[in-house]
Structure formats: structure tokens, C-alpha cells
Amino acid sequence: MKYDAAKHHRRSIRLKGYDYSQAGAYFVTICIKDGLYTLGEIRNNQIYLSEAGLMVQTIWDELPLNYPGVEVDAFVVMPDHFHGIIVLMPENISGAIPKKPMTLPDVVQRFKSLTTAKYRHGVANLGWTPFPKKFWQRNYHEHIIRDEESCETIREYILNNPIAWEDEPLHLEKYHPQPDM
Q: How far apart are CA 167 and CA 53, in angstroms?
């Protein structure tokens, strides 16, 4: 079906007028399309990553190596989603290394593209669970971290995410809002 603006009414879930290339920290949640549990499993309040989950973790860890001016902070790979803090450094803005500063959407898009390509390789060559059309959901949830107190609260949330998964049966519905499609 072809996109028709009159029918589909796609809207951005980003903060209107905000410059997402600004230096700062951003909390992101990225969900696997259709909620497939492909990245690992939670047992005894701990995440046990699958090969696919380890691949996602590796690509996250390597973002600063591949994209100067981008740093990563706390993160957790969950069975069907990912939480992490992306930090755009001031040197990202200066344009000293990249000609155009990386924006938060640029970083998330590259993360999703790299992990999708590696996951496709895993499906074709390693027997990983196939996925229909798209690996990640089209959008992602983001939160601009405005101060250190908020950052610490988010780090704690990330750290405790596997515990909350088992302790709260409705955890996903309650704490992981799904972006409008």
C-alpha cells in the first residue's frame, strides 16, 4: 500500500522545534518489530543475551569508534527491545571531524541499519529467527536528558530493567510506550 498523507496521518513523535544535533544526552528505547524475543531471555532477574543480542551490544559499544562526537552511556539489551543513553559531544557540533554534525536520528538510524544488516546475515548464515520485512519498529522513543538527576534516574531504570521485566507482568505495556505507527 502506498503512503497517502490524507489517509495515514503520520506525525513525528519528536519534540517540535528541538534541534536534535545539540550536544547533550538522550535516552532512547528501540523495539523489535512485532515484539519478537530474539535478543535474549530474562531468568532470575538477569538478561542472558543470544548471539543476536551480543551483536546488538557490540554495535552499540562501537558507535563512538565509528562516529566521532558520539558517546554512549548506560544501556541494556532486552529480549525484544533496547534502552540506551546516547551522548552527542560538543565536538560533534563543531564539525571538526564530520562535515555535518550527527543528529540523534542519524545515530539511531545508523544503529538500526547496522544491526539489521548483521541480523540478516545471522538469519542467512547462523540460523537466527527470521523477521518479517523490518527488524526494528519504524520509530523509537526518545527523551532529552536535561540534568544530572534525571540522568541518574534513567541509568537506574536501565540497570533495573531486567528485574522489572520479571517482577511486573505488564512491564512492557506500562513502561515501554509504543510509538504511533
A: 22
| Three cell numbers, residue 150 | 534525571
Name the strand (E) or helix (H) holding 29.
strand 24-31
CA-nearest of 107, 98, 49 to 78 is 49
Taking 60 as the threshold, does the pLDDT of residue 136 lie above it? yes
- φ/ψ (deg, to 5) at 158: -60, -50
CA dist 34 → 11, 38, 73, 141, 178 (Å): 20, 11, 27, 16, 11
0.85 exceeded by pTM = no
Ramachandran sector of residue 50 (left: φ over 0; alpha: ψ -120 to 50; beta: rest): beta
Pinpoint the alpha helices (H) of the chain: 5-8, 51-66, 90-94, 104-126, 148-167, 171-175
Q: Is the confidence at residue 133, as pLDDT, over 70?
A: yes
Longest dimension (CA), the chain: 48
Rounded to an integer, what distance in angstroms lies between the CA atom of residue 141 and that of residue 144? 10
Look at residue 172 in the predicted model and tell me its pLDDT: 52
Q: How many CA atoms lie within 13 A of 61 on its CB side?
A: 8
CA distance 56 to 68: 19
